[in-house]
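S2.1 Query sequence (HlyD family secretion protein)
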Amino acid sequence: MNKKKTVIISSSIAVVAIAGVLAYVLWPDAGKEASAVPLNTAIVAKGNILNGVSGSGSVSPINTGSIRTKEAGEVDQVMVAKGDVVKKGDVLITFVASDMSDKMKEAEKSLTSLKTDLTDKQENYKTLAMNNATEEELASAKKAIEKAESDIAEQQESIADLEEDMLPQDPLTAPMDGTITAVNITDGEQAQNGSELFTMTDYENLSVTVQVDELDIPNIKLDQSATITLDALEDQEFEGKVIEIAKEGTSSNGVSLFDVTVGLNESEGVLVGMSAEVAITIEEKNDVLTVPIEAVSEINGKYYVNVPVTEGDGSETGAASDTAGGQMPDGAAPAGSAAGGQPPGGETSADLPAGGQAFSGEAPPGGASGWQGRGGEGRGGTVPGGAPSGGFPGGGSSSSTASGQKRVEVTVGIHDESNIEIVSGLSEGDEVVIPTVISTGSSTGSGQPQMGGMGGMGGFSTGGFGSGTGGPPSGGGMGGGRP
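Output structure tokens follow.
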């Protein structure tokens, strides 16, 4: 009996020992797993980039004004009413002709008398000539005839003026196409010289005026295209162009803003006063290589991306890959990094997880990467390791568990708030690393990697990845304010 128990116990001990050995050999190393943090990457792909300036305002008419009479006169008939749509040149009111019949009779009577006087003086001259009058007498008679003829001519001119004054003044006409919005005169009323008789507005040609920051106004030009969206017509977009740029700005909180007026090409369904958003196109490129804007960093005036390096790939080729110790090609340490690739403060790169990631929401030493905006909330969100395809802008995305990265120098072009053009240094289909921040349970409670905030239209930041790793700027914004 004792022997049987001893065998059973010995067998149990052997099984436990074997299980322990197998567990030790086969069980994954938690430390290794923790260090093998997945890289969030994106694929270099062709796309369209639109660089522009946006702002909000309300719809207003381009042409509006009052209509005044140039001369006083009695109104014969008002031809339009409030709300009528008129064309340029349409008659708005007519005037009554002036009654000057009595003056005309007196003028015509005077003219008849002058003609009779002329006839008498002509007969007198003939008589003097037949009776052998002296030269002085004949000259005096001739001057009398000339004076009578001059008086007749002057009287004829006076009658012509009276005839013109008896005609009604020209009708008042519309100076432009539009809608009559106010009528301030009635039939038979006396219109005073310079008085406002009508107001009218052109509701067909509409515009939106937005305020543009002084840093952006040099890029705004007349006739630049724009897109207008309205809160009241959410499913429609309206095309337009810049028609006016203010010559003087207004100061608000230390920032100078300039009014830019954008005219709508079509205005069907649009009403004056509607709230509008305007996006003015400064530059646009189609079918160019793009990457997410947060994948690019600036170091000493040059631009770089990090690309994953698989195990066994010891090459550091590329336009400008890091040398040993995280130094730049010229031997100088990258901005914000100590020589030898160690972060400032004595921390080593081993203190940070691989893949350009940091814990507690802080970017690793080496400075901020990506675009530096003008303030605002970061657009990053929680991005789990190995995001699904299409989860990143600039093409597809993938996830790599490779711990190595290398920096590649690139030439960049224009950018928008999400993507940036790659002119050289990468090819379509290449993979770039998206900087992430790993949040601990004490900071966010999620323990998932988060994409760093991206700057807006303000330009690149001056920091970069230190020693081949790095994080995004802390609290980068979408742009819209001042740096």
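The chain has four helices and 24 strands. The radius of gyration is 45 Å.
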